[in-house]
Amino acid sequence: MTTGPIRPRDEALTSDDLAICDRVLADVKAEFSLDEGSEELTRSASIIIELYRQGVRTEQQLKMLVYAARGKFDAL
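Predicted structure:
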């Protein structure tokens, strides 16, 4: 059991939160032609969820940061 307050970053993601992350992942998958189940797609999903937990909430911001992490700056 925790003894301190739960930080917003540690709260469970809601279905709405996951829907946002899923839409961003679908865009990333299409933009970079990533295969389902590939290591690159898994890595991108991890980045998206971590950014979301850190407070990046809009799809546009999430895409911009993931695209930049993958070295693509002209897609947005």
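Summary: The mean pLDDT is 89.
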